[in-house]
Amino acid sequence: MLNKIETYMHLKDLGEFELIRRFAPRFSSNIPQGVEGIGNDCAVIPFRENHSLLVTTDLLVENTHFIRYQISAADLGFKSLSVNLSDIAAMGGKPRYAFLSVALPVDTPMEWIDDFMDSFAKLSEETGVLLLGGDTTRSTQIAINVLIIGEIETAFIKRRSQAIPGDIICCTGPLGDSGAGLKILLDGLPQEGISKELIEAHFRPRPQLEEGVWLARQPGVHAMMDISDGVASDIQRIMEESYCGAHIEVDLLPISENLRKTSAQFGWQTEDLALSAGEDYCLLLTVDPKNYDALKTAYFNQFHQPLHTLGKILPGSDLIYTLNKETFLPASGGFDHFKSH
Ligand code: ADP
Ligand code: MG
Fold this sequence. Notes:
Blueprint: H1 11-14, H2 16-23, E1 43-48, E2 51-61, H3 73-90, E3 94-104, H4 110-127, E4 130-138, E5 143-153, E6 168-171, H5 177-186, H6 194-203, H7 209-216, E7 221-226, H8 231-242, E8 245-249, H9 257-266, H10 270-276, E9 283-287, H11 289-303, E10 308-314, E11 319-323, E12 326-327
Parallel strand pairs: 3-4, 8-11
Antiparallel strand pairs: 1-2, 2-5, 3-5, 6-9, 6-10, 7-9, 8-10, 11-12
Helix pairs in contact: 3-4, 3-7, 5-6
The chain binds adenosine-5'-diphosphate and magnesium ion.
Magnesium ion binds next to α3 and β7.
């Protein structure tokens, strides 16, 4: 039995993460040794000596994750696979197999379906993923569910639970571009020039698969996950699983020139977009300070992109933000499916 809860409470009072925390223990008692369930970007299932399968699934629902007339079928096909690939990258694995379930209205044009499938197939081929099955059903709203099975040498698996106080918090990409793209769409702003690039970041996040595999094998990389709900929320997943606190230096947030210019033009709070808007799908990791300098250099040599520093893992359980050494209060704590509305 789940614990009794006050009857006047609704999902929006609990929030997405509290909901998962509430039911997860009910399903954790019979999990065999070596298998890892709820709590990371993927579940882990050992499958042959020293190797494990990584399994992840994500659901994209019309009017929650996208608006049908704003996203092309090709972009939706790309994104529905890409966000799942990102969860495999988050633990350092290589994607292998996919299952695709679609719920579609009966009047969906065949051209839309072909474009969706072509785009899904193209990204599958590029990333070495084989589609093995799925399900197809009618619905009044479009819903897309993808499940991916990946593979990894067990010793290299990266989890949210591996951060240690003193670790440097890093991320692999600029933050906030995707959130800005979404804002442009929702606010009905002109979609040209820089705005187009920001929308592209929202519709076609590149799964950081090579980066994930490489980082998982580097000495000193401790915890890792992908940024789907915004650093302000995702760092809390690392804190909960690793029993630690964190200090985020807002001055260090990697903000692209495109985002700076667009924020200045429309008077947006750049820092809040970068911290809380989410869907960046780059990697968030914590690194042993001993290995940090060497890792930063090696990462740049490998990918010709900087590894960005965001702050430090602290003992305790507090999450602290500073801007120019002064306390900073973010406007929102990141995306939550039930609380953010
Ligand atoms: P991500 O953003 O990486 O996809 P989530 O924050 O959605 O991860 O989920 C966190 C954890 O909770 C994951 O381990 C995920 O598998 C698990 N989870 C989320 N929703 C459910 C559900 N409905 N049933 C079982 N596990 C779930
Ligand atoms: Mg994830």
